[in-house]
Fold this sequence. Notes:
Elements: H1 22-25, H2 31-34, E1 41-42, H3 54-66, H4 76-89, E2 99-102, H5 105-116, E3 123-125, H6 132-139, E4 144-146, H7 157-168, H8 177-185, E5 191-195, H9 207-220, E6 223-227, E7 253-256, E8 270-274, H10 279-283, H11 295-307, H12 309-333, E9 347-351, H13 361-369, E10 371-372, E11 374-375, E12 386-390, H14 395-408
Helix pairs in contact: 3-11, 4-11, 5-6, 7-9, 12-14, 13-14
Amino acid sequence: MESVSRDLVMPDDSNPLRRLSLEQLRRRTSMKWRTYPHDVLPLWVAEMDVPLAEPVAEAITAAVALGDTGYPAGTAYAEALAEFAHKWWGWDGLAVERTAIVPDVMLGIVEMLKLISSPGDPVIVNCPVYPPFYQFVGNLDRPVVEAPLGPDLRIDFAALEDAFRSAGRGSARGTTQSAARGVARGSNRPVYLLCSPHNPTGTVHTAAELTRIAHLAREHGVRVVVDEIHAPIVAAGASFVPFLSVPGAENGLSLMSASKAWNLAGLKAALAIAGPEAADDLARIPEEVSHGPSHVGVIAHTAALRDGGDWLDALLRGLDDNRRLLASLLAEHLPSIGYAPAQGTFLAWLDCRELGLGGDPAEAFLQRGRVALSSGRAFGTGGEGFVRLNLAASPEVITEAVRRMASAAV
């Protein structure tokens, strides 16, 4: 990256996002740093530019020193998550006996859909939404039914209820012709795949919204599976509410992981959690699914949840600063971009439709500005003209990214 300093970070031990220089980050071999050429500033895939939290690094090092690299066993991960849920969310309803270990959140979602639906049964999503929802659900031969978010990027309950009614009748409204044929083959067991907090918008659903979702789902015979991978990452003043904690959600299924909050995507491990009425469903999960997670991953996730709270607090403060910084930079250099700092996740959803860059502004930012962002098109209906920017980087990197984006928009 010839136009900027190789370091491009002012070291600050109090902020995990300012601990590593750009030169250090470029030595990483993960997807974020190996997908694009060296001169591209990568702010796309949901990896964070942070070192491992010290308790996590220590737990991994101790396991390696002991040769503790066998198969996963026990309930330590679930116990740690239950303790974390009590401390951070005031939720005591996470019962260890109603959990199952799965390789990661998306593969866990696949297993939950297999348990409670059949090929051809519709799966409702709130678009724009995390692209793997479409990919994984489609590969399971379940048609996707979209219930778009409202203009405020929150749940549009009229659209959601319409989708529930449609799915309950076995209709494939809004799906492809092949998907429509799939619905006819199904057992009419529709599922609502909820993203909470929502990716890409960062919306944090309220207890009232989640309760309304639970009651609507019961009324229309729709089961709810919720992706809560970003649950620990909320802005100051916002509160995450576990879906299974609200009235009416007793037959729901949740997927949680320490992956996003502590940057552990390469250390595979997640948990499926059942509400009281879904315990029998979860008990039918095939035994071989538990062979997928990494034992070292389980050790790392457990350490993060039990001992990584101080590190997470520092990260959340850094992300709050970055949200404010991005808003300020865009107001100064790209005022035509629509952006409202999100309540959750470390992602920013940017409305670039007024820039005149066409339907895929991410391509223009990449080719003209050498900044890699996620294209809004991949997030389904409502994503055209948007990009998703990863805020889990140093303030200096974000500042340079906006400078490049501004030059590309000229």
